[in-house]
Each structure stands twice: as structure tokens, then as C-alpha cells.
Design brief:
Helix 2 packs antiparallel against helix 10 and helix 2 crosses helix 14. By secondary structure, the protein is mainly α. The chain has a two-stranded parallel sheet. It is globular and about 55 Å long.
């Protein structure tokens, strides 16, 4: 799609979600689950993926309603104040996500690439690039993601696969203690919350175009066509989750199989250190970890652009100036990221608010709304614009 209609295809949505998830999940999950033990970590990742797939399928919506304005759907189903609350939660979630991306970019670049550069500058760079991507529109981001997502995924997969011969299988069976909720809290739930963009999918659905031939709905009623489009979008979202999940499982198995429980407890970002173990005979490149860092930061830049764009879209639906929302949102995110870099307590508060409140609330709202619409057959939208 190369028109300027500010819409994306289902394939571009899949690529957009994959680039949004890859960098954050590879960095956060292997770090959070580092104290679980190999077996518990892998079980947690699998459980989190099942939750994410179920939420993704449920959030798409009933036939005919998924393409409607999300605010109008919420207003029609539960009233204006509920719609305001969900949109306000979306904005909090997105500001938190952008803050996290800025923080990760600054911490990784400052640790591995540019230790002499001031942290303020390292936070400012992804802010400027993310803002520029957001102002370019969702269609531009969809094109960039479509051109890069699967190349990046393939390179990540290759680099992780090259570490497999170094795995010691006995370390993968280490449970590192009793199952006292750790698998759920640091494993499954971290994975599920890492896929938290699922909760704002209804915000993007009206901008997705599914050709009738691709959806298998060239003939039939409008309801059948709506079902075909919904199923196609569900399929693409599921593929993005499973591709991201494959990287998580591979990175978790490789990290624990090589470093063991003791090593995982001491490493801040095991997946980056893991890449330094990559060895490809006959290739001149020796610093795979530097290449990996570059790919991760690129994914984080794209993730920032997507979140900032969605922030502007949510604010615009609440009658605020989109440009103003973008500028204020980026400014607040920059301050929060700077605070995260100075205080571990700020990172803890981020997890409490974004992981334990916003992500489950938004996912539950999207799924419950879709189930209600499907149960009542109500496709009306009294506030759609």
C-alpha cells in the first residue's frame, strides 16, 4: 500500500506489532525471569504467550464492530464516563511505554555504545526520532515496519540459534526454588504485560484495510465480510505474538543453558551478553553484541514512534489538539525516563502502574466489549466520527 490514506494493511499491522514487541520483550523478560530457574522461566513464557494469544483474539471485536471508532463503541456500550476512563488509561499506558523505551535506549547506549555522552542527550535522541515518526503517520510507520520487521526477526533468530551448541541441557531443568508465584509474577505476567499493546488494538482497528480477496469475503452479506476481516486481523495479530514468543523461548533457553541460574541473577540484560557468545565461522564480524544492540535500539525507536502516534490518536479523540498531546506526552515521557535513570523506585512505580493496572484493565475492556457486542449483535455506534 503506497497511497496516502493514513491506513495500513493487516500485514503491516503484524509487522508494526512485531517491531513494537521484539526489543522490549527480549530485554525485559530475560531480565525479570532471571531468578526463576530455567524450567520455571520457560513455563512462564509459555503461559504468558497463551494469555497474550487469548487476549489478542478477544480484543479484535465482533463482526462489524471492529472497524468502528473505539470511543464510540465504549460510549455506546457503557456510557461516556467509562469511555473517558478507558481513554485516559490508554494515555497513561502509552506515556509509560514511551518513558520505558526512552529509558532503555539511554541505559543501553550509555552502557555499551556511548558511555561518555550525557544521559540527557541519550534520552533526547529517541524522543526526537519517535516524535518525527509519529508525526509522519501510522501509514509511514507501517511501511517502515513492513520493510524491516521480518529481516530483524530473522537476524535475531539466527544470532540466538548460533548460541545453541553452547547450551548445557542440565541447566534448563533447574527450578531455582519453589513455585511460590514467581512463575506467574516474573514470568507469565511479564510476558503478557509485555504484549500490552493488545489492549489498545481497538484504537487502531478502524485504520486497517483488509482486501476482500485476502479475507475470503468476496461474496456474501456484510456480516460475512465483517467476519472475514476480523478473522484475518486476528490471524495476523496471532502470528506477531507467536513470532515474538519464539524469540523469547529461544533466548530464554539459550541464556539459561549457557549462563545458568547464578549467571542469570547477576546479568542485567542477559540477551545482550548472550549475543557476544555468537560464533559464525568464516565471518569477519566478531562483536555480535554491538550489532545486536543496534538492532534492539532500532526496534525501540519504532516502538516509541508507534506509542507516540497512538497517544496523539487517543488525545485527539478526546477533543484535544493532536500536536499538543504529542508534544506534552513526549515531554512528560522524557522527564519520567530521566527519573527512571536516577531512581530505581521510579522503575518500580512504572511496573505497578503500567504492568499491574493499565495493561490488564485495557485488555479486559477490549475483550469484554467485544464479547458484549458479539452477544447482543449490537453494531451501532452513536458517537463514531
Amino acid at each position: 500500500m503506497f497511497s496516502e490514506n493514513q491506513k495500513i494493511s493487516a500485514n503491516q499491522l503484524r509487522a508494526l506489532l512485531l517491531t513494537d514487541w521484539m526489543g522490549k520483550l527480549l530485554l525485559l523478560v530475560t531480565e525479570d525471569a532471571g531468578r526463576l530457574g530455567g524450567r520455571n522461566m520457560l513455563l512462564g513464557i509459555l503461559a504468558g504467550l497463551l494469555l497474550a494469544v487469548a487476549a489478542g483474539r478477544g480484543a479484535i471485536g465482533a463482526a462489524g464492530d471492529a472497524a468502528k471508532d473505539y470511543y464510540g463503541r465504549l460510549d455506546n456500550a457503557a456510557g461516556k464516563w467509562t469511555a473517558y476512563f478507558i481513554y485516559f488509561t490508554i494515555m497513561i499506558y502509552l506515556v509509560g511505554q514511551v518513558s520505558l523505551v526512552f529509558y532503555l535506549c539511554a541505559q543501553i547506549a550509555g552502557t555499551y555504545l556511548l558511555p561518555e555522552v550525557n544521559e540527557t542527550v541519550l534520552i533526547l535522541v529517541p524522543g526526537i526520532l519517535g516524535y518525527y515518526l509519529a508525526r509522519s503517520g501510522l501509514e509511514a510507520e507501517g511501511r517502515i515496519s513492513e520493510m524491516t520487521a521480518f529481516l530483524l526477526w530473522g537476524l535475531f533468530f539466527l544470532m540466538l540459534a548460533l548460541t545453541l551448541p553452547q547450551i548445557r541441557p542440565e541447566q534448563l531443568t533447574d527450578s531455582a526454588g519453589k513455585l511460590d508465584g514467581g512463575v506467574w509474577k516474573a514470568g507469565a505476567y511479564t510476558v503478557f504485560a509485555g504484549f500490552g499493546t493488545i489492549g489498545i488494538l481497538p484504537l487502531l482497528l478502524p485504520q486497517i484495510i483488509v482486501p476482500q480477496v485476502e479475507a475470503g469475503t468476496g461474496k456474501g452479506s456484510g456480516l460475512e465480510k465483517g467476519n472475514g476481516e476480523r478473522i484475518m486481523i486476528q490471524k495476523k495479530v496471532g502470528e506477531a505474538i507467536l513470532m515474538g514468543g519464539a524469540l523469547l523461548l529461544l533466548s530464554g533457553a539459550a541464556a539459561y543453558g549457557i549462563f545458568g541460574t547464578d549467571g542469570m541473577k547477576t546479568l542485567r540484560w542477559p540477551v545482550i551478553v548472550l549475543m557476544s557468545c555468537t560464533n559464525l565461522q568464516g565471518v569477519f564480524l566478531q562483536r555480535w553484541d554491538v550489532l545486536m544492540i543496534g538492532f534492539l535500539i532500532f526496534c525501540l525507536f519504532l516502538s516509541a514512534g508507534t506509542s507516540i502516534y497512538c497517544l496523539g490518536a487517543a488525545g485527539g479523540r478526546l477533543r484535544a489538539s493532536r500536536k499538543t498531546v504529542l508534544m506534552i506526552g513526549v515531554g512528560i515521557s522524557w522527564l519520567l525516563a530521566f527519573w527512571m535513570g536516577k531512581s530505581p523506585e521510579a522503575v518500580l512505580w512504572y511496573r505497578r502502574i503500567v504492568f499491574w493496572f493499565c495493561a490488564p484493565v485495557l485488555a479486559a475492556a477490549a475483550v469484554l466489549l467485544a464479547r458484549r457486542e458479539k452477544g447482543t449483535g449490537n453494531s451501532g455506534n452513536k458517537n463514531a466520527e
